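Fig. S4 source data, part A: sequence.
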Amino acid sequence: MIYSKRTHKLRIILIMTVTMLSVFLLAKSSFTQGAQVTCPSTTLRVALGVNLTSAELAVSDGSYELVDYLTQRVISSDPANGKWVVAPAGSFNLQIYNNGLPVNGLGSSLVILRQKGSGGRNVFSFKNKRYRGELLIENLQGKVQMINLVDVEQYLYGVVGAEMGPGALEEAYKVQAIVSRTYALFYKHHPQLNYDVGISTRWQVYGGYDTEILSSPLVKKAVDETCGKVIYYDNEIIQAFFHSNSGGYSEACENVWVDSLPYIQPIATPEDALAIQAFQQESWAGETYQWEKNFTRQELNNQVTKWNRENPSNTINVGEIYELAAGRLAIDPQTREYLAKQTPSGRITQLDFRGARGTKSFYKDNIRSVLGVKSTLFEIVCDSTVKIWNAFGTTDLCSYTPDFYAVNADGYQTKLNGNSGSYYVLEADGVKTVPKVFSQLTIKGKGYGHGLGMSQWGARGMALQGVKHSRIIEHFYNQDKFDGRLTISSYRP
């Protein structure tokens, strides 16, 4: 979520997570294996850049040396002298340039910008951003990888303010510190790539030293006062998913992704509505709680064309679209089959694009991407939607009516207003013209992000009510059960 539309630097740094809209659950799968680097138990491998053709770095502050990691040969004992550029030399080695001049005699795939002392403030820069810790540079299959090796507590200085955003109370920052520490250390335990976490909303936002110095002093205080604390459930460190705003009600993990997790379950959080009251001069905050998106028929077709261009393996080819149909059935966590009941929060689990040549369905969190919307907690309103009484004496919502017939007073069936593209409905305030196929479609939604785990605006709202950080964590990750299965304790490597 963007903090300022006017200041580019703040737009980059001070954000709240959209939820980590593409973070995936832990799965046993193959991944590209980089070099094996031994790190202390609280040191994270944070990918600042991957698959690069070249990269530039510089020492901003402190004492460093540039070292060939494999041979321990010192390339430069004082790399603060100017700018350094690294590039792949073939598929395995690196070529390094200092102030434009090549460094000769290097035949390594792995170089480290290593701190010479840990007592002072050591900071390097990459892509015009500054970071604490060390920088591991690797040629991985002909591309440069830039991996920040940083202690988890220093890492959090650059995460908590970026994630929770400005203006929160100390208890909210403490919640974010514990949640973000848990999240990062879980992936250190269960790495899926040749690094632990990235820096974007796919993981959690890490702005490095620049974010640290721009954040409220409460951020560093919250990190320091919760130092080492992580969340355990049944004595196992949890996947501490979080998102910007649940729209008042979070969701069960199996209804959004795949796996069922006992601590990622639905819970009502009316405090999410704080977003409407906050930052009255900025619309973005309120729009995390409640939002609306409109499509004309042409705009919907344009959205589909854009989707097909960007997703050639999962295209929508149903011809002229005449209806979007949403299903909200919950998923059985054991069988993975649909249940005969709605998701607890009302989130959509199936979206059908219905057209002249068939139907294309999308499921769960993928629905957000295909429509470009903030969450799956929404309803679809068409200008063609009417309520029809069915044989059971209840009403169905229908948005496509070209094939509907009416029975007149003589008992004859006739098409609604013949072959016209619209027909007439008598309402309480008069006669209304209704198109048989929609011309305007409105998506009315709530929430921002996947809706799993902690809602950041909910945490802010609870903190504003005086709720302590441990109680907020119990709310989101144990649904206020207080049964002892969830604990907050020191990290156990």
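Fig. S4 source data, part B ends here. The chain has two domains: 15-232, 252-266+279-400+437-448.
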